[in-house]
Specification:
heterodimer; A: 175 residues; mainly alpha; globular; B: 1034 residues; alpha+beta; 20-stranded mixed sheet; 11-stranded antiparallel sheet; 17 helices; 18% helix; 38% strand
Amino acid sequence: VSDQNEFLRLLLAAETDLRAFVRSVLRDSAAVDDVFQETALVLWQRFAEYDPARPFGAWARGVAARKLLQRRDRESRFPRTLSPEAIQGVCEAFDRMEGPIASRRQEALEECLARLPEKSRELIQSRYRDERTPQQIAHETGRTLAAVYQMLSRVRSLLEDCIRQRLKAWDGGGT
Amino acid sequence: MNDVGLLIERFLAGVATAEEHEQLDRLLATDPRAAELLARHARLDALLRSHFRTERRVEEVVLAERGRAGAKGTDGTTPSPAVRRVRRWLVLAAALSVAVAATALVTLRWGHDEPVAAAGQLLSGHLEIAGKPADSEGMLLPNDKPIVVAAGAPALIRLADGLHAELEPGTHAVLRGPSDGIRQAIELTRGGGTFVVERAARGEFQVRTPAGRVTVLGTQFSVNVLFPPRTGEAQMRAKSMVLVAVISGLVQVDVGGVVHRLTGGDSYVFGEEGEKRPMARGVVEMIDAGKITLAGRKKEGQVVTPAKTYTLAPDAKVAIGGQAKTRADVHVGAQVQLALADDQQTVTAMMLLAPLAVLHAADAPPLPTSMEIWLQGFPKGASNEAEAPREAWTLYFDDVRLTQAIDAEGGKSTILIGPEAANGDFESDGHALNSYLVRQVKTVEATDALPAASGKRFVGMVADPNARRHFPRAIKYLGMPDLNRGRYFVLTAKARAKETEGMVGASVSVSFRADSREEVKAYHGSRVAVTPDGWVEVRLEFDYDRGIPEAVGARERLAGLNAERAKYPPYDITPRPDDGKNLALSVAKWEGRAGIPGEPFRVWIVGASWAGALAGQSHWLEKAIRERFPNTPPIEFKSHSGSGCPWNYARGWVSQFVLADSPDLILIYTHGDLPMLDVMLADIRRHSTADVIIPSHHLMGHEDQDPRRWLDWFQAGHGFSVIEQEKLAEKHGVEFVRNRHELADYLTGIGKTPKALLGDSAHQNGHGILRTWDNIVRHIAKPAAFSYAPESRERRVPVSPATETATESVALTGGWKMQDGVARTGAKGERIKVTFTGNRIDLLGRSLAGGGKVRVLIDGQPADAAPVFFTTPIKNEPIAFPWKIPGPGPGDVGPHAVTLGENIVPQTWTITLTSETGDYRLDGSETGPDGEGNSTKLFTSRSGQIRIDPLLWRYNREGQEGDYRYGNRTGDKYSFAVYRCAVGQVSFAAAGTAPLHQPLVQNLPNGEHTLEIVSQGDGDVVIESFYVFQPPEK
């Protein structure tokens, strides 16, 4: 049971980043879900072999990358994905970014969303809550597609900065 | 936004053109900044998706599965991709979830066609299966074979899907497999039992009796078959009855075509024609020739059921386990069920109930459903150290063969792996063999330079050079073989490395795993020979129940241990004159001068994960004990450790359940606050006679570059002084191991730093574990003088002749026959009175055919009413981890111990978190709701039975006022049981003469007590001595 507890704890902590990684190299959402689930199963099946000295997230991404390439090589109809070299590059980038667990970043995000200007929050809600594509948003708001991309990019930057500051404040005891 | 940013936006939005896709691909492969931009972008994207819940998270799936009432099987059609996805979630949920096993296990079998070979597993007690004795705890039980529970003790059985059955002595039963929509059933033709169905889904489990069927709808209940009293009501005459008592939940009873539904608290007797009679259930407060009084019940201090007196019908039947007994067998304090006549006042039958062995059920291992075979080879120069990565190398395996002896065919073997592997032509190009940390698996053609072990082809594995601390291995997954066919297995394999690299060894392991993947049993073997062609031969022989035969195992183990030691610099483990001075009782037990014959020597290892690392290699301790004390009885190792768990909380485990297990030696290996170590040691010394070893903590990663600290007595890297630690050990007579300083001296001697002994920043590697054990085993010795006399803690008190010492005296009254060092009687009412000093007393005697019983009284009252109790480990369900508190986050969030107060009623207690800020409520299975508390505050339950100390609640809260973070969340549950550790009666009955050891009363206040044994006159009783335990501190 202690193994299960530990695995669940590690998987939950790494889940958001692991999904982010798979989604960043594979755009088909059903395939993302498939690869994520298969990865989680493999991780569990091999958990006894997991080396706790290594970050769980890095191990999980390695397994996910292999699983993804395996399916890409075996299934002719597997959705388009990045090349092995590009996947490796992204994988390494994620490794370099290991940081606070997702639950803490999630908490920070909640605060930061609340602090966003109304228009920006509406844009983010439209994109992520209502699952509108940038094209749909452009069409519905009468903006150009490029403007929507610009706005989304700016709001993301705001959120990233805000999250970073919140985490820093929590860790440093400031506000 | 620059071009790369736009590309990434378009890519993540799924609208990038093929050209843009390729452009981004090239950038990501070559420019780390672009890859980082994408990673950052994707991370936030995922965070936002998670926030707005557009993806179903693991936690939701697991929690959702916990709430599902049942699972459906497949219909044989090919599932759609969406269905497959859902099923994979369910499989994952099943694998992860303990609490949900009912749904989950069934679900898991969608992808697992091989049936579980066994119907159940014997956890304790003695059975006959189809007329043959079966008393091996842990053995698997078949379907469709008659099972008879031996007289004298109940049998605790675990069936599939989380069902526990405690069958009463004398019960006749048959386990049945799936039929008519029922997954599993027990047929009872005689006797009865208590059933706890925590996990079975609705309607999946059934108890069948001659009178009717009881179908589980999720509950705890007891069922007994009883033949009616001779003067019962006419319609019930000569027909059997079934007694059903529902402790909690819901069951359905089908008798004589009538369906009854019973809920918690209902107790009825049913006749074969569907008639239903009320039944009273409770604890006997008084019984005489014509009346019986059941004690009343209280909840929250209020009387909810007053004591009630019933009239005993002159010929009221009394039964235990379906066997006719007399009224004299019903004693004050016993749990009984009373069948009542229509007047609700006259008792027509009485049934004695056996207490459910909660502790055994909680610790029961799961049923194995699969096997894993591991093959490993170790190349020359290989190191297990983190700082020494190695090059890739090629490993070859051949001649892998696993056989199972078939008992019915005179031990002739059937092949489980092979024959393709066995004849050297490895199966299907390596695909049938899974691998770990391997870059490539391939089939290799034999050549003159590289001959096969046999045949022409073998498997080759190219190890991943990036795999640092673990060695690559080949893994073979197999379904669970039918253990009813035979339990003896032999695994052989040959391994070699590429000629230029060579090998130092190889090993094989067989692991039996449950559906949850939890390891049920595992056996390991290592190199036994090298063939002339240079193949390293490995071999493993074992019996599933009995383990590796001594003749096979000892040789291989010794060779393995010697090979492991040879990898490291020489180290002196010769005992010094004072070593072992605080281990007088252990040494006496190892030399056969103390202890109870037939009992193992129990070692408990408690602490943080680094204690767990030691426990994993406890064979070093066993080896030292056996080499220096060859007459040592079997050694039993148990351990409990948690992530970074300091003394502050580990002390809770010790008081909650370790001391209840009667340890002979406790090894504590962690750090913490010294006052908490003091509290823990005082607790051990007041309640236990165990010896204690404490090694100081090894050097950690953060001390690696600070040599001044290594030999500094004033710190151990954790803010306390090693001098003070040693003083505390001395104060409590603990064997202190100066591990930290001995390791520092060693490292200085070999010119290395602490990292040479570490696998990561905190935990020892193989080298560090061995050296710490080396430091410990120097103390496994007989010194010139001990610090105490073993007799001051444990004493055997003979009855023939009667003992008379300063601490104990024995007086026999009546016609006891004193002969051959024992006292024997068959008469009724003969007494032995023992005055003793200590906190526990056991009986040593002989059981025999036609043996009778004795009643046990302690300090003038029946022992089974004595206020002595133990508690079981605190289980957490669902899985709890600190959800807002940063840090390593152990699985042992929550209370590590409770303290027992007054007016204790044995029962199961559940703590349920009711808020996100540490509020909880406490419920007892008998007492009911017993108050509300908070994990950060001292709590005493309303009835006064349970106290919970916030200092023993790990990760209850962190942070400052106004910004608190709590480790628990609403719905977290913790449960434990309180059980009485005394018996009111001892039976000497058995099939033949055998030594009898029975703990009588434990956990008394450490002082003077009087024990009385009173013969019942229903057979011979033979008593040799008593065994007294006197902890050294009061």
